[in-house]
Each structure stands twice: as structure tokens, then as C-alpha cells.
């Protein structure tokens, strides 16, 4: 329990608004609940949320200590009152979520609360499966990430061992990643291999493809297979053989078949025609193709996880 005495600068404020300013990590719905449960007392008694503070009032807050901290990236999960996750698979070691387009995987300079990892941490914290106060160093973490405006499967580790194994398996290419995308035109041949050399312009936050080696360029390889064609669009499955930044988006554009909705590498006229404001790209399948020892995650060998087609928002695209 912590006590505060209202000074002249806080006098006249509503109790709930004062609480929100004093404890910015405390979610508003939880703050309202604590007021109703009389875990926030004014002069020794419960009070309504719209009570106007008076200079000299004694406030007693029966609220967990962690909510009195200042907001930081490592405690942002406390601000999430109701985690929003589409969980495809979960066990004691990992959790696989279907991330919606528009959601960041990790915090950035502008957003550190509404991210995939923050919601996962809040979910595990509220389930009492993880509490940072009980851990020496480990925090649940993503094993890989996808672009903000790409939807699809992302793996998070609940334990340090799971994170170590998954990171190694991804590095050794023992986890196969498949994407679905809508592209402009019809690829010829309808299935094959896209190869090139990709280099990134850090200032423009954009990558470029070349057909021949270039200084700083990294090999990029994507297997593709056309699944359907309608009018001027093709539904294509892509299998990543390498995992470079913006790989599918840049390679398809370089091949003359940019992704529908892609504002960075795409066709602005086509995007406006269909009203798409982000790329039609979804990480829809993961295959755990372990060929070496996987330690505590050995039970995942040979398993496949896939997003149901009804959750991929561009598969119902009205083609006109």
C-alpha cells in the first residue's frame, strides 16, 4: 500500500484521472475496477471515480508495486489490460500466433505498447506463467519477425532453452516458411525459383535486387508456385530458401509482378484500383523440418502449423 497527500496542483481533479496520471502503466479498465473494489481509498474510505480531489486528502492505493514504475519498453506489457492474440498453437515452451497486418512485432520509437511481443508478454503474465520479478534474466521473446503490414505466423519462446533452440533451427534453415501472396499479372513459368542479390539501403529502409553479385549484396532465393489466376491477379505460394528483408516483395517486383497493395515496391495504379493500402502477403505455414537434435523441442519434429484460409484477408479479394 502506498499513500499520497493531495497538494494544491492536484486539487480539483477527478480521482480516476489523477490515478491515470500517477500510474500510467495501470490500464484504465483495471484502474476503474480497483476504484470499485475500494482498493483506492480517500481519507480511509472508498470513493467514486468522479470524486473531486481536495487539497489535504489522504489517498491510499492498494495496488501492486510494479504499476508505480515509469513506462519503459520492458514493462509495457503491464499496460495491456486484455491481450488480443490469435493463437494457432501453444505448449509449455512456445506459442505460435497469427499476427494481423498493421501490428508491429517489436516496439519502435513511436509504439511500445500495441505490439505482438507486448501482447504475448501480457498474456503470459496474466496467466501467471511468467513474472519478471521471478526471473533472473529471461523474458518471453519472438524467435523471428515479419513486416508490420504482413500478416501471419510468428513463433515466440516461453523459455530460454526454447529461444536458443528455435533461433538455431531458423539459422540452420530447419524451419520451412511458406507465404501466400497476390501479385500483378501471370508469372511465366507458373512455378520456379527466383534468385538474385539483395542489398539494403538503410537510409531509405528499402532493398534492391540485382541479377549479378554486387558489393554488400546477399543471395536471395524464393521458390514460387502459382495456385490460381483471375483477371490480372495471381495467387502465389512462396517458399523462402533464404530470409532477407522484404525478400518476397522485392523479388516479385523485380520479376515484374509486384504484390497487390505494396506501397514500397508495388504498382500505385493497381493498388488504388483495388483499394489496397498494404501488401497482400501472409506467412501462412510453418514446417518444423528438424534434421538435427532439437533438445527440449524434439517433439515438434515433423509438425506443420497453418493459418486457416478464412483468416487471410486478401483471399476473398473481389477481382475486377
Descriptive overview:
- It is a single chain.
- The protein is of the alpha+beta class and 320 residues long.
- Helix content is 17%, strand content 28%.
- It is built from 6 helices and 15 strands.
- The strands form 2 sheets. Strands 5, 6, 7, 8, 9, 10, 11, 12, 13, 14 and 15 form an 11-stranded mixed sheet that branches. It has a 4-stranded antiparallel sheet with strand order 1-4-2-3.
- A hairpin with a 4-residue loop joins strand 10 (191-201) and strand 11 (206-210).
- The model has no long low-confidence stretch (mean pLDDT 93).
Helix count from the secondary structure assignment: 6
Structural class: alpha+beta
Helix content: 10-25%
Q: How many DSSP E strands?
A: 15
Labels describing this entry:
320 residues; alpha+beta; 11-stranded mixed β-sheet; 4-stranded antiparallel β-sheet; 15 strands; 17% helix; 28% strand; elongated
